[in-house]
Amino acid sequence: MRRGHYIKAGKLGGYSGCILESWDIPSFRAHLQEYLTAHQDFPEPFAKYPGRAIYSLKSDFGKIYIKHYCIRSIKMMIQTFFHLHKAQKSWRIAQILLARGILTPQPISLMNRWTSWHSREYILITEGIADSVSLRECGKLLLSEQEKMFPSTFYNQGINRIMLKRKLIRSVAEFLANLHLAGIYHGDLTANNILLECQNEQWCVYLIDLDSVRSTRRISDRRRIKNLDELGRNFLDLKMLSTSDRVRFLKYYLNIYTGETRTFHELFYEILNRTRFRLHKHQQMFIR
Known about the structure:
Largest sheet: 7 strands, antiparallel
Structural class: alpha+beta
Radius of gyration: 21 Å
CATH architecture of the largest domain: Orthogonal Bundle
Order of helices and strands: EEHEEEHHEEEHHHEEEEHHH
Distance between the termini: 38 Å
Low-confidence stretches: 153-158
Helix content: 40-55%
Mean pLDDT: 82
Strand order of the largest sheet: 1-2-6-7-5-4-3
CATH topology of the largest domain: Transferase(Phosphotransferase), domain 1
CATH class of the largest domain: Mainly Alpha
Number of strands: 12
Shape: globular
């Protein structure tokens, strides 16, 4: 996925910012204008957090996601003078990811406006990924008996549930390795922050929720262990991962990430010990 070219959007509904050139068409501008001027009257967001709401809307080009951020406190306003806001950070990181060949939803527009001297709003719009599910949702589907909920291409070829899981493990492991090779670290790598899309009987993996992503020249060993442990604890809720699956996941990871200096045995047990420690700390059961 190549990086797009952006142009100034001008004033839309009291907001100013930039828009992806390929989306700068009258019908989308009208759709965006409608949202910006009357978003309070839109249906309930499908996700809501303190200071942020996420809406899913349909456009002429397909589904889009709108993240609406609100800054209401003086403390947060002061922080934005010294640091990028989450919307700005997500926007910048998305450009870096796409430039380095890491899949993430294409950002379409970033808009903002002052609502008072101490309050501000940001609007971040990204493309939706058709027929995608989060890694957590995929885990629930794998545990269910409803095979019709899976991509039909797998079952048309007669691939069973075990093969589907192994394809998934390999895709996510190789994605994480490429992420680390590109110097990208996600500080909150949960199963909700990974999107999966089935294409040509393979899983395409996307990184989302980029607020906690860092771009560096080299990922430290501590951060890599943390990401590997996080996926170990979140991957399919640990209910589908046997010891063989963990070994398989790490082997796929090391086939791509060639900068590891420890032996496979040392790395495997370092990750495993951290996983056990974190689960014990949160009073969760370790599932073998």
